[in-house]
Amino acid sequence: MDFQILDADYEIVDSSPVIRLFGRGADGKSVCCFVPNFEPYFYLKASGDLHVVARLIKDTFEQVKKVEIVEKFEPVGYQKTKKEMLRITTSLPRDVPEIRDEILKIRDVLRAEGDWQVYESDILFRNRFLIDRDLGGMVWVSAEGQSVDPSRYLRAGSTGSSRCENFACDASFLASGLKRVENLTIAPLKYLSFDIECLPFEGGMPSPDVSPIVMISFSFEPEYKGHKTLILLAKPAADMDGDVLPCKDETEMLNRFFEIFCEYDPDIIAGYNHQDFDIPYITDRVKTLTGKGEIINPVAGRDGSQIGYRRFGLLTRTELKGRVVVDALPLVRRAFSLKQYTLRAVSKELLNREKLDVPPLEMEEHWNDSGEKFRKFVDYARRDSELALELVLKLRLLDKYIALAQVSGSLLQEIVDGGQTSMVETLLLREFGLRDRVILPKPGDELSAERFDMSSDLKGGEVLEPKKGLLENVLILDYKSLYPTIMMAHNLCYTTVVTRNQDRPEGETIKPPSGGEFVPPEVYRGIVPSILEDLLNQRGETKKRMKRASDENEYRVLDATQLAIKILLNSFYGYSGYARARLYSLPLANAVTSFGRSNILNTRDLINNDIGKIVLRDSAALLLEEAGELSSQDRIVEISVAYGDTDSVFVQCRSGGNLSLEEVSLVGNRLAGIVSASLPDPMELEFEAIAERALLIAKKRYALWLFEPRNSGWESKIKVKGMETVRRDWCELTSITLNKVLELVLIEGDVDQAVEYVRKVVSDVRNLDPGKDAELIEKLVLTRTLTRKTDSYKNKQPHLTVAENLKKRTGVMPSIGTRIPFVITAGKGLFVDRAEDPDYVREHNVSIDVDYYVKKQILPPVERILEVFGVKMLSLDFDAKQKGLFDFEVKNSEVKNPEVKNSEVKNPEVKNPEVKKQEKIFSQRENEGILQEEKTQCLENGRAEQRSLFDF
User: Fold this and answer.
1) Does residue 758 surpass a pLDDT of 50?
2) CATH superfamily to which 191-396 belongs
């Protein structure tokens, strides 16, 4: 049978572990494949007579099944010869963590000298099997074997009863042989989403110990018995739609929920925030009811296991055996930058579908109604599960993660939960094993903290000082996969670094600018460069197959695969400097970035000093020495590096007249070729795009009007970095204004028009009427995330003020992780105390603090762009109905860039005292009580980002 692996674990049968592989077959059947005779093991490096150590271990620990002397390389450092180590095999997987620390005490018993070290003692047993057998998540497997009764391979449940009667797989068999199969298709997976509705408790958040679940809605893909949706009710009801199933009470509804769940037998369990709310709530509610004598059978796993969850700090993880739990909320957060991540906002923005609304305080009234309100409540529940499933399927949120599982070998659930570290380590473990090299266990908290403190010694990429201003005809040249190709080109690896404690190679070594030594590939080809080379080749082949793809599905799978490979390629450098990595190496990470810095500086010198000019002649780009005698038909293009950042170089092209895109591209391709020829293989500089106009403001802050070559033509777009157009901590009007200003400056080349546009926006804000300008108020909404409980905040926050106001008015406190929308209203006192719910402002016609929005939201980021042309903030602060203090005359002046209209603002050298006073007040309002909290939140966001990349 051929099937695609969704999940893996093990059971203990007759005192031995049996691996279980769960999946979906090509024929659509769910599968459980049992694999016996795989044993847990780990390694020990010891000193002295290893035969004596082996006998003592065998005699001391009854868990040890056998001890063998093997030859292995140590994890880090170039080594000429292997060292003898002990491979210790235990009876059960749990024996490994039980004895790994105790075994090191044998050294004291023997009074042995030297360093003793345990290796590979913390690898999950299922992962150990997948790595050793070259299998992994979403990989296709061809299995030989015979059908078996699954009851033989199931332990009793938590209640002591057999799980066999609830075993959900269509087929179960004992494998006598397994072989990986190359198959691009995705098995016909079943998707199920669900959403629960609970009644608030005493006007507050529902609690599973007292608040009942009154409705559960399902959505299915494909259908379940002819239904796309089903809604279960915890009470009898008449004259309902065909997909509504009334039950006599909550207990019957919950039992029906689990029956449908297992009958449908889904592969993917979707929801929106169901990891943090719905699944824990159902689990805890079942415990409450069963504690009161109710009989509920909460089976949800394919093997008949019950639903459950575990909390790790603020994280919640659900494990449903044989299935993959996919919460759309964190996946949407990673994939899309939105102002709010409520289901309502996300569905409207990404699906163009409205979420139905029943206010929490009205739910009980709707539930107790028997007419239109009750039907609205049912429709509300149905829509929530529909939207959760649509987000996963229509946005194809899983495509990337499925491809990452296939390429890395990690299980899909690990990757969906954020396990980038596991992907890198799975690849390393597999390749280290093939090279007879062991790997260290994960570091403890103390060692990780030490490494984190050392991270300040890691220097990043080179950022060149930009030529500030508006430039024309700027080439964008990018280094293809810079850090991976540096590691390949210079053979940078844990296994090639020359250490004091290891062997020294003969001949020359590779010496990075940051220091240290690495052996060249002809002496020993590093494991990491080998993995990267294989991934790079896979990506190249995948892109070729994309061009030959015969249908949309094949193209989509291939595109997800090449993106997954790109992610993995760029993960190895970050992993080397990650404090919790098994193979942390600051010298390796510094070596990579130091070669990168040297590379970009050499490229700048090559372009500016060695090349300097390009001659365009008959559709060819020639160096001056190649061109020989120049004619009147030749075009000389002066080139110079205008900016550079880590892996990209901006090159300005100047000529006597206008240059066409085709002419500039000739220069770009020639420069890319010259620079690439100066780089070691496989490093390469690629011509990526042309910026007809580039606004360079500062390091890592610029805007480009880009033209990218596409299908024998050009595709244009504006690209922005480091500006408020893409930051969520500014109101929407800031983004709209900045985008329009950039469009006028970059595309139209008209700074005067940009100034007039800003003045009109400011005037509209200053004359805002809350009762009439609801659309404008919506554009002034700010959002911040409620990151913890309200009493944990050290300083007052605007979104905290709004959350507390909402609780007073509705009785419901927004949950942690919710982005709270707010606007700043007019009045006295700190602005954090004047934050208010936008709906409340509109309904009660509350005045807005227009000065705050003009001076702190709109004008500062606009000024950072327009000050390049001499425009100051005071000239932009305009009120059409109140000319006076801020109504300064704007006149044309000498143009800094001949091709662009410009403006010069005539401002008095000394500010009006009233202006200075107001600016001081606004500055105090912004800073008081919030700066420290902002720093804390930035740190938390940074840590959360680090966790999402490397910590799961």
Assistant:
1) yes
2) Ribonuclease H-like superfamily/Ribonuclease H (3.30.420.10)
Q: How far is CA 770 from CA 306, 780, 840, 847, 859, in A?
A: 53, 11, 11, 6, 21
Task: Count the helix, strand and coil residues of the chain and give each as a percent rounded to the nearest 5.
Answer: 40, 25, 35
The Cα 754–Cα 901 span in angstroms is 10
**Mean pLDDT over residues 912-927, rounded?**
41
Planar angle of CA 453, 456, 459, nearest 5 degrees: 150
Which whole-number Å values give the CA distances from 780 to 817, 819, 822, in the listed order? 22, 15, 9
Domain boundaries, the chain: 1-189, 191-396, 442-525+579-722, 732-942
Rounded to the nearest angstrom, the gap between the alpha carbon of residue 370 and the centroid of all alpha carbons in its chain is 45
209 CB-contact burial (10 Å; exposed 0-12 / middle 13-18 / buried 19+) = exposed
Residue scoring higher pLDDT (553 or 78) = 78
DSSP structure class, residue 919: H
pLDDT above 90 coverage of the chain, percent: 73
Alpha helices by DSSP H, listed for 339-439, are: 343-346, 363-368, 372-394, 399-408, 412-416, 420-434
CATH code that applies to domain 1-189: 3.30.342.10
Q: Model pTM?
A: 0.86
Choose among 167, 129, 157, 169: nearest CA to 22. 169
Q: Residue 642 phi/psi, 5° resolution? A: -95, -20
**Interval 884-894: pLDDT, tens:** 444 444 444 33
Tokens of 660: 């066409």
Residues 6+ apart with CB under 8 A from 895: 901, 902
| Residue 436 vs residues 118, 348, 352, 421, 439: alpha-carbon distances, Å | 16, 54, 54, 22, 10
**Residues 660-715: pLDDT tens digits?**
999 999 999 999 999 999 999 999 999 999 999 999 999 999 999 999 998 889 99
Q: Under CATH, which architecture does the 732-942 domain have?
A: Orthogonal Bundle (1.10)
HSE (side-chain half, CA atoms, 13 Å) at 446? 0
What pLDDT digit, counting tens, does each position of 96-150 carry?
999 999 999 999 899 888 899 999 999 999 999 999 999 999 999 999 989 988 8
Q: In CATH terms, is domain 442-525+579-722 a member of 3.90.180.10?
A: no
Give the whole-angstrom CA distance, residue 756 versus residue 744: 11
The rounded distance, in Å, linking the Cα atoms of 682 and 486 is: 8
Contact indicator for 338, 349 with CB cutoff of 8 Å: yes
